[in-house]
Amino acid sequence: MMSDFVITQKNNHIFEIILNRPDKRNAMNWELMNGLESAIDQAENLPDVRAVIVRGEGKGFSAGIDLMGFNDMITVYGEGWRDHLFPLTATYQRILGKFEKSRHPTIILMHTYCLGMAFELALACDFRIASIGTQMGLPETRLGLIPDVGGTTRLTRLVGIGRAKELILTGRNFSAEDGERWGIVNQIAAQDDLYAKGCAFADELAKSAPLAVSYAKRVINDLADVEHGLQMEAWAQSILIRSEDFANGAQAMLMKETPQWKGK
Questions:
Q1: Residue 160 — left, alpha, or beta (φ > 0 → left; ψ -120 to 50 → alpha)?
Q2: I need a surface site. Which of 65, 104, 108, 210 has the fewest CB within 10 A?
Q3: Which residues have CB under 8 Å from 87's CB, separation 6+?
Q4: Annotated catalytic residue 140
Q5: Of all residues in the chain, what percent are helix, strand and coil, respectively (each to 5)?
Q6: Which of 16, 140, 204, 227 is catalytic?
Q7: Cα(24)–Cα(57) distance, rounded to whole angstroms?
Q8: Tell me: the pLDDT tens digits for 166-214?
Q9: What was the pLDDT predicted at 3?
Q10: Residue 206, C-beta contacts closer than 8 angstroms, at least 6 positions apart
């Protein structure tokens, strides 16, 4: 099956979900996010799938949310969407949550860059494999926002409070090598070997009993109170999206300027 921005294909017991908007650095807009949801739903209905691989076409995995795509929100949620952010946040949280809750193990292959909401997708997947030197990060605070599609909650669960605060509050990027050292990245590979390494890992997972893998994943996921964290993310973002700082931050990012923060 193929859509404009997301391609799916099945390779034996591996189901692939491919971001296919390379001319826009695979920036994530409304259409791409809906394509991701359709793709993971398709994978969920295939009993012979043993692993899902998520990857991106082009020079990098994804630069994150498409700031120019905010106009889509007007079409879907109306002119006052910033004043009623919860439905939008809930939709995006639900979509990424499907990757975490899928009965199949999900493996994301990151190359060159994986930022913002794209990195939140990576955190929602079970395993992260990155090419050497790949830059990752959650730069939302440099825009006047927070990671609200599971990034704040899942990163904290993965690396602990101290490291999560460091990475989220500074908004700085970090390398795949640091990510592996901190337990964010499972494996690193040369970019030319990235796909083969992902398939080899999927093959290794397929050696285990599918029902046992599915239930083990569910038990491990349920050890953390993700739902409460997602609610807190949505609450904070509903305030920040209407702030002057966000308006200034978004404008500055589009103009490649340094934002002037006002704290309001």
A1: left
A2: 210
A3: 77
A4: yes
A5: 55, 15, 30
A6: 140
A7: 11
A8: 999 999 999 999 999 999 999 999 999 999 999 999 999 999 999 999 9
A9: 66
A10: 13, 50, 51
Report d(CA 22, CA 7) in Å as an integer.
Answer: 12
Among the listed residues 31, 37, 120, 244, the single catalytic one is 120
For 72, the token pair is: 């889509």
Q: Which is nearest to 126 in space by CA: 193, 51, 176, 182?
A: 51
Q: Is the dihedral of CA 216, 217, 222, 223 positive or negative?
A: positive
pLDDT at 264 over 90: no
Structure tokens at 39: 């793709």
Q: Are 131 and 194 in contact (CB under 8 A)?
A: yes
How many other CB atoms are found less than 10 A from the CB of residue 232?
A: 14
Task: Name the 3-class secondary structure at 136.
Answer: strand
Q: Assess whether pLDDT exceeds 50 at residue 1.
A: no
* CA atoms of 16 and 55, how far apart (whole Å): 8
Most distant CA pair in the chain, distance: 55
What does DSSP assign to residue 13? T
Is pLDDT of 89 > 90? no
Which amino acid would we find at residue 128?
A: R
Q: Whole-angstrom Cα distance, residue 53 to residue 17?
A: 6
With a cut of 60, say whether residue 74 has pLDDT above it. Answer: yes
